[in-house]
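call fold(seq) -> tokens
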Amino acid sequence: MDQEHPNFSRPSSSLQGIPRAVPRYIRYTTLGLRRLDAKLPKSSKPPKSPGPTILYFAYGSNLSLAQMHERCPTSSPLVPARLAGYRWIISTRGYANIVASRCDEVWGFLYSLTPTDEASLDKHEGVPTQYIKQTVTVEIPLADSNFMDKQALVYIDLLHKTDGTPMQEYIGRMKAGIHDAVCKGAPVSYFKKSVLPPLGLSEEVLPSRYSC
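ret:
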């Protein structure tokens, strides 16, 4: 069952003075947070057309910037984020899913969505027969090694929660998503450990700093 989306407050942490020596994903997150701050509705004035945006946490093939632009043309990519207490799997349907697992975590990417984007994404994700929508708390990494909590929309398959074999066409889309996520700052170590094995992929698919 869908849950109402909470009102998202503006980030309170300072975004100034981030040294270039910090990890790449932190530097990218800093830029993304500025974009995030600009995208979220301001409480002091009503949102402008096409309506207020919400945060969406992508963890599967929607990590691909090209795919998201095609599905949701007015969406904006923001920052990498972490969802604690879940594990990434390929379900028996052959597509990505996340399942509750206290000691695991899922890294993904936050997008801002307009209501039109969300409606389009619902159709692509097969809501409510294939995936349902939930609101979760994700963590955005900051330069001081802390995290900023944000509420975000996520799509979860509650019926297929066991490990399966990926659909062949999905592997290609996931390769594109992994490339974009790593290039935009998501941790390489996460994909090596949690995403590549279920897909049957080697580390050769990971982008180098020269291919981003």
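The chain has one domain: 24-205.
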